[in-house]
Amino acid sequence: MANKEKISIDWKNVIKLAVILFVITAIASLCLAMTNYVTSDVIDQRNEQANTEARQAVLPDADKFETVENIEAVAAAAAPNEASIIKEAYIGYKGSELAGYTIKTAPSGYGGEVEVLTGIDAKGKITGITILSQNETPGLGAKSTEPAFQEQFKGKDAKKEIAVIKSGEASDSQITAITGATITSKAITTGVNASEKVYEALAREGGAQ
Q1: Of 4, 9, 137, 183, which one's alpha carbon is 20 to 30 angstroms from that of 153?
Q2: Which domain holds residue 181?
Q3: Residue 28: per-residue pLDDT
Q4: Average of per-residue pLDDT values in the chain
Q5: Domain-located, residue 46
Q6: Can you tell me which residues the record assigns to a coiled coil (predicted)?
Q7: Buried b (16+ CB within 10 A) or exposed e, 151-188
Q8: What is the C-alpha to C-alpha distance for residues 68 and 77, in angstroms, rounded to an integer?
Q9: Number of structural domains, the chain?
Q10: Which one, of 170, 177, 146, lies nearest residue 156 by Cα?
Q11: b/e string for 22-57 if b means 16 or more Cβ within 10 A?
């Protein structure tokens, strides 16, 4: 019977390679963590800048904004049925004077959540809306990002609920749905109506947080 050759393992070399591999992995992980840390700050800054610009777009008279810290409680009291879609609210000021409010909502559209930002001035008029994000059908619900649809809300009384009609001439408390995208149109209107309720609650408090 032939003798089996013993396999000699150079443990010193194995340990050396393991240490080298560990060091390389640790350095790579550290570099990745540092990159994520730096880029996350940049992304956060860009997102905040974009949000500030959006707030200024829907409430152009305001030159500074203060967040409403207790928005969950305000939403639950003002719009219990829509509280879950109300995400944030800001009070806008022009100098030291109250300019109005911006409220972000996220109602469910045809393709998922649609982030809607609504501006309402101190006199209770809608000053504008904008769509912050959406996944609606291109050529249909995605038209909600176009001025032709959004401008319908501008100037409407924030104390009146807005309804959606499919055709015909819209009244002061109505908007016309995007052709072939009634679900999207109604979702956005739900968000605006919820924002109106939050506005009324904040206005009663005089902008108090």
Answers
A1: 137
A2: 59-204
A3: 86
A4: 91
A5: no
A6: none
A7: ebbeebebeeebebeeeeebeeebbbbbeebbbbbbbb
A8: 14
A9: 1
A10: 170
A11: eeeeeeeeeeeeeeeeeeeeeeeeeeeeebeebbbe
